[in-house]
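Justification of resources, computational component.

The compute hours requested in this renewal are based largely on the per-chain cost of generating structure records like the one below. Each record pairs the submitted sequence with a full structure-token output. That output is archived, and it is also reused by downstream analysis tasks.
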Amino acid sequence: MRAGRAGRIVEVEAYAGAADPASHAFRGRTARNATMFGPPGHLYVYFTYGMHFCANVVCGPDGEASAVLLRGLTALSGLDEMRRARGRAARTDRDLCSGPGKLCQALGLDRAFDGADLATGDRGVEVVDDGVAPPAPAGVSGRIGLSVAAEVPWRFYVPGAVGLSRAR
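The structure output for this chain reads:
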């Protein structure tokens, strides 16, 4: 991902813009969510709860907001850097990237990466196919930590993978 830190995405949640009351784009475009309305393949990073950054991959056509929240990552390289970034909270490899805030902290992602092009890696962050086939079947569940539309089955994950977040 960046500065030698890399991992395999093992958990995501989908958000469907104007059609999804849980989406940041549900009420329209704002300065905060503008990246969600941009071209696909870019990173939408936002600050939440006054303490965590979260990262989403924009996936809809230009002008239509939709994104996929990166919820969990299995760390593959740069683990020492990730541990330093996470501090004492990361006691095990499972703790490094098991949740969207932890994932961003471990990778060093903040608002400076909002809008980064994930195909070209223009800011040192990119998403690539590592050749590992998706699980068959993938895990599917309702989304985590929402007060609306949590029951929508748009959380997808690799069953048993290191780095899955914990349902609350």
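The chain has a mean pLDDT of 93. The longest strand covers residues 67-77.
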